[in-house]
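re: ur question from yesterday

yeah so i grabbed the chain u mentioned. its 122 aa long if i counted rite. heres the sequnce exactly as i have it in my notes:
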Amino acid sequence: MIEILMNWPRLALLSFLFSPAALIVTGCGSDGPGAIWVDPGKYTFYKCDDLARRWKALITREDELRGLIEKANESAAGAVVGSVAYRSDYEAVLSEEKMLQRTAADKKCSFMADYQSDHIIR
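ran it thru and got these structure tokens back, copy pasting raw so excuse formatting
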């Protein structure tokens, strides 16, 4: 017991260092790091019209977040703030878009042919 108490600072440091690494590794699938925040069955019961409305909302949110990140990157301190404040939301939106695209393709929704992204996903 005394050994555990004496090693507590090391254990706390190790858990602090490896927790983010575990999240990063878990999120490195095909849907990107934001996939850990997206429910895989979220769009199961959506109809094509509902998916189209949600797609428009996601595109709008992606553009908004991209603009905020770009604006924050204009200054040195802003780049860090932008990364901390907006990057996780941006990654979650990109992952949700991929999930929605997959669901729309499975349901053979025609609206997906109308939307072609003009942005490169990083």
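noticed a couple things. DSSP finds four helices and no strands in the chain. also Residues 19-28 have pLDDT under 50 and may be disordered.
anyway ttyl
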